[in-house]
Fold:
Amino acid sequence: MQCEVRVRKLETNEPKCMKCGKPFRYKEQEYCHDCMHTQHYFDRGAAVWLHKEPVNFSIYQFKYHNQRIFGKYYAAEMVKKYRNTLLKWKPDIIVPIPLHCRKLRKRGYNQSAIVAKELGEYLGIAVDTKGFRRVRGTVPQKGLAPAKRRMNLGGAFSVSGYLRTAMKGKTVLLIDDIYTTGSTMDEAARTLKREGAEKVFYLTISIGQGY
Ligand SMILES: [Zn+2]
Structure:
């Protein structure tokens, strides 16, 4: 119960960035510092909570300690918070940010795919967890400068033939656990659009603070 109250306080509320959805601490502005200076490939995105205690701990458990059950709760919160937004975005297909097969084997599951599946069930929207793949392993993004991050991710994703056909001219909703600098989401959106997707939005469980 106490946890519930603490989590409520971390909900991302207005004012927030019109592009990436990062909440601002003080000022009313349209875009965060990052989105003012970066040309993003995705159309828009949003997150449920700020990436702070206890949300970060919860996601850590979800990712690394087999707490797959949390996926249902995260998806339910996404629906509750972003019902109207989703009605506006009208996604045709939901796609999780993939893990490289080596990582997937090691962890046993892709946490973003779990949320994507639960969300698809709530919304009655098709989910594809196979066609969008991470074909290249990358070094951890943490500590890399923005230009290095882009290089690190370049060509990291690929789209299989059937998904290319399925998403041609369609709107894709990407799902990931955390949005930090947006470089992963950008590379994913760039790949999906290059392969024929018309629009790419995203929802994540948590996000960093915007400035
Ligand atoms: Zn932003």
